[in-house]
Here is the input.
Amino acid sequence: MGEAFSNLMKSIQAGQFVFTGELEPHKSTDLSEVLAWATTLKETGRIVAANVTDNPQSVCTMSSLVASYVVQRETGLETVYQLRTSDRNRLALTSDLLGAAILGLKNVLALTGDHIKKGDIVEALPVFDLDGTQLVELIHRMVYDGKDPAGNELHGPRPQLNIGAAGNPNFEPVEIEVLKLERKAEVGVDFIQTQVVFDVNTALHFLEAAKHINLPILIGVFPPRSYGQADYFSKYVPGVKVPPEFLEQFQRLRTIPDKTERRQRINEYNIEYFTDFIKEVKKQEACKGIHIMAVGYPEVVAPIIENV
Amino acid sequence: MIVLRQKPFAEILKMIQGYDRILVVGCNGCAGIYQVGGEKQAKVLGMLLEMATRLKGGAVEVKAMTTLRQCDRQIVATTLSPLVEDYEAILSMACGVGVQTLAEVFENMMIIPANDTQFIGMQDSESGTFYELCRACGECILFETAGICPMTRCAKGLLNGPCGGCVDGKCEVPVEVRDENGKVVQTIDQDCAWYLIYDRLKKAGRVDLFRKYRPPRNRAVSGSPRQL
Here is the structure.
């Protein structure tokens, strides 16, 4: 395991069970909603860092580099700067990473990213000069060798970045996903954050299969606010399996006529479901934390964290 | 083989406007084999151009012929030199290479492409479908990938796939079949190239080749224009 530069990595290395949150800048010059959510996450006292998405699903939004910096400056919440190779070649990636270093960012999540055709500017050139694994290697080389991808020397203090990468417990067969994680470990990744998992057995199976890699894994969860959100994950997010009983429960809850009561019951169910889920996955040695992606859903985030 | 498709007829008509004597030149290489630009197609296109021009009240003199391979300067020069001075323009039914070879050999002639060059591929003779299989990247890794090219058949061209967009062995991006105007007329689910690669390597007892980390490509190798 590499050096710990960020609070996230320091907490993991200190043996704490960590929580990370998620922030999504929009196609907008306004970050006020993001900053408000970041403040809420910070106030839980338990969210050690929050990811700032980079053109998620290839929908073009504000730069994650800039948004990460503004969040840290305005709220004091540490960020995990997400960076995709779909939109940038290795020059652009290196430039942005040098910028991230001077802006005081300490975590970067190296992603390949969805294909441009999944997004909202489908006629753009899909770059993919590198893939996510190769981006891990690029960052590792900058941080530990002080070199750019061509071997040219970087001047000034070396970037102090902890390197994250994505994992997908839903991938079948799981051995393919594990082989991919082995590659990422080989090139120097520090931690793994996973795609959303709803089914606890899927998460447990993955953690067991990946434990020999000795990488800290943060399992991704997404408590949905409505049946519609749960159904969306089930139908439209590649590979995410939502257990039928979970969907059925949401279907029952959506029939409650009183809005306040309905919300209350959905919150209670989410808290109960994800508390149990997290308690189970926490028992696995490879699981070092939870990446909780419920953006703007404070009613459940704090209670879930307190319960576990 | 180089896979071609004839341009929309209206586009060809627009390009030949203003030229009264046109030499239509087919190619018996890839274009001829795939029956897009062989002898018969050259003759048919020539007749259509004459008829269309006549319907508009004009007249165009067309001669249709073919060369063995339009991508060969010597063949092109020998076959066409005695003829070209009688014409104002050459309508090439070859690929982009053939068009450019003509332009080099006959530098004072207007060379008009009749086809859009699509890709390097293979045809399934039963269904007639053409599949893109090679991007001529200059660094073949097919040994490591069980004879399946991820540069071409992975929508992202990944070297360390599959990505998270692979579900049940299928790619998150379907293949878009387009008509001659570039409009999508059909989308077809495609297999994830890396899923296929894993499957084959596993059967061959070579999961080690799949597991191997592949560093970034040297893009300079495939930087255009190239010479050998």
Summary: The beta strands of chain B are 2-6, 21-27, 61-67, 89-92, 110-113, 115-123, 130-134, 175-178, 184-188. Helices of chain B lie at 9-16, 30-33, 39-55, 73-84, 96-105, 150-153, 193-203, 207-211. Chain B touches chain A through 26 residues (CB under 8 Å). The mean pLDDT of chain B is 96.
